[in-house]
UniProtKB/TrEMBL annotation:
The keyword Transmembrane applies. This is Cell envelope-related transcriptional attenuator domain-containing protein. NCBIfam families: lytR_cpsA_psr (TIGR00350). Pfam families: LytR_cpsA_psr (PF03816). The keyword Transmembrane applies. Residues 1-21, 443-493 are annotated as: Disordered. InterPro entries: LytR/CpsA/Psr_CW_biosynth (IPR050922), LytR_CpsA_psr (IPR004474). Keywords: Membrane, Transmembrane, Transmembrane helix. Belongs to the LytR/CpsA/Psr (LCP) family. Residues 447-469 have a biased composition (Low complexity).
């Protein structure tokens, strides 16, 4: 076979296509398919041993390198997959590998194909090889495209460097702290509304060793709080009054007020003024560090839910669409993005505080159901929705550390929730000493004791945040929740 020809039983050489052109093209295609799976098979059959061994050796190196890298450096692969420069290199590498693989397929067919094929067999062979080339190239092209989309998503959402543009110390991502505190915000931006009101504000304090998390929820209608020292405190020395007329402002107004008044946060760029002032304000209210923030636009959140195919959740009682006079029926439901938005935002027959609890349960359900298979199969749509929905100041360099931490949170870590709502506090006249003490105890994991400081009536701010139906608030009859409770226990299942 050294000269690439077939042999008869009497050792008389014949051309591979003699007397059986159909069999010749079938054998050539079979060898080409084998070479697409293992490089060099067709070349070795044709007697081109040097080229065949080189191709086989290269293929073996690729397989071994891939297996060893996956087995020994899986953690590093995750880290590299979250770095835009490596994603760019990987995408280019995939395209180059696809080009090489297609070249091997084409050349293998040329080597194995008989020279005297009829026109029909030659055409059929060429078409079949073309289809095989597409079959080889499509997975690589899809992977390269997905890699590019991932890079574009990362660079669109996460900046490089800290808030001042300085390099981040990735060797100590948490700056020696045992916990990292991330402010989770839900904004209500919409085409028919001006600005952003942060109707959902929760500080997630995460133990960096165990992933155990405490969620500290603040109500949107909290009043009589102070802004941080500096230009903001100078403007409002006796507490925030957003309208400037002496009426107490609400906590959910701080974000947009800062965006409209850059002098309150000098040196901070547009679209970061609101987050910076709100982070500092909530840090003062809770007496807890606020390291980073993540803002999820509510309409964008609906797009994320649709991108993962809906969210499964149990609704304990019917929830009315307040504007459309439709009902989310009680029971196990798979909610669309729009329905999930109403589930999290509706105050009909309930109140702000019941809604806060539903929002946390909704976030928990989405996080649980956004499994790797769902993310991979719907990656493009999910990435596009995420770019529209999320803004944050978490640096790109810390993404590997946060990815590792999120794995701990998702895989068995304890998640507790403490909401500072009536009757635990009065939103119109908050007991900030009580809020700070309970927050400190919740984060430290110590026992919380009943407050000895009297609070004013929970209805003090009713005029600023009325029940939309005029009915009784479901939280008014419940005993105060003065210590964190498990989110798994409080969310319907």
């Amino acid at each position: 076979m050294a000269d690439g020809r077939a042999q008869r039983d009497d050792d008389t050489p014949v051309q591979a296509g003699d007397g059986a052109p159909a069999g010749g093209v079938q054998r050539a295609l079979g060898l080409t398919l084998a070479s697409a799976l293992v490089w060099g098979v067709a070349h070795l059959w044709a007697g081109r041993r040097v080229a065949g061994m080189i191709l086989l050796g290269l293929f073996g190196v690729l397989v071994i390198a891939g297996a060893v890298t996956t087995a020994l450096f899986r953690g590093d692969l995750v880290r590299l997959a979250l770095q835009p420069s490596w994603l760019s290199a990987f995408a280019v590498g995939l395209l180059v590998l696809a080009l090489v693989w297609v070249t091997v397929v084409i050349r293998s067919y040329q080597v194995a194909r008989p020279d005297d094929l009829p026109t029909g067999a030659r055409t059929a062979g060429a078409v079949t090889v073309t289809v095989l080339c597409f079959a080889v190239a499509v997975p690589f092209t899809w992977a390269a495209h997905s890699t590019y989309v991932a890079r574009d998503t990362l660079t669109s959402i996460f900046r490089s460097g800290d808030s001042n543009g300085r390099p981040v110390n990735t060797a100590d991502p948490w700056n020696g702290q045992s916990r990292v505190n991330v402010l989770l915000l839900g904004g209500d931006a919409a085409p028919n509304r001006v600005g952003v009101r942060t109707d959902s504000m929760t500080l997630a304090s995460v133990d960096t060793e165990t992933g155990d998390t405490v969620l500290l929820g603040l109500p949107r209608n909290l009043e009589n709080f102070h802004l941080p020292p500096g230009p903001a405190r100078d403007r409002f020395p006796y507490g925030f009054t957003g309208d400037g007329a002496g009426t107490p402002g609400l906590l959910n107004e701080v974000y947009q007020y800062a965006e409209e008044h850059p002098d309150l946060v000098p040196g901070v760029t547009k679209n970061q003024r609101g987050p910076e002032l709100l982070k500092a304000t909530i840090s003062g209210i809770l007496h807890q560090r606020v390291d980073y923030y993540v803002l999820v636009d509510m309409r964008g959140f609906a797009d994320i839910v649709d991108a993962i195919g809906g969210v499964k959740i149990r609704i304990p009682e019917d929830i009315l669409y307040s504007r459309e006079n439709r009902v989310l029926k009680a029971g196990y439901r798979t909610l669309s993005g729009k329905e999930a938005l109403w589930y999290g935002r509706s105050r009909t027959n309930s109140d702000d505080y019941t809604r806060m609890g539903r929002q946390k349960c909704l976030m928990r359900a989405v996080a649980q159901q956004a499994d790797p298979q769902t993310v991979l199969t719907k990656f493009d749509r999910l990435a596009a929705a995420t770019k529209r929905a999320i803004s944050t100041d978490i640096p790109q360099e810390l993404l590997p550390a946060f990815m590792s931490l999120s794995g701990k949170v998702k895989n068995g870590a304890k998640i507790d929730s403490l909401q500072f709502v009536p009757p635990l506090i009065s939103t119109g006249d908050p007991d900030f000493a009580l809020i700070r003490r309970l927050a400190a105890e919740a984060v430290a994991g110590g026992p919380a004791k009943p407050s000895t400081t009297p609070s004013s009536s929970p209805t003090a701010s009713a005029s600023r945040s009325p029940n939309t139906t005029g009915g009784p608030s479901s939280s008014a009859t419940k005993p105060p929740q003065s210590k964190p409770v498990s989110l798994a226990a409080t969310c319907p299942s």
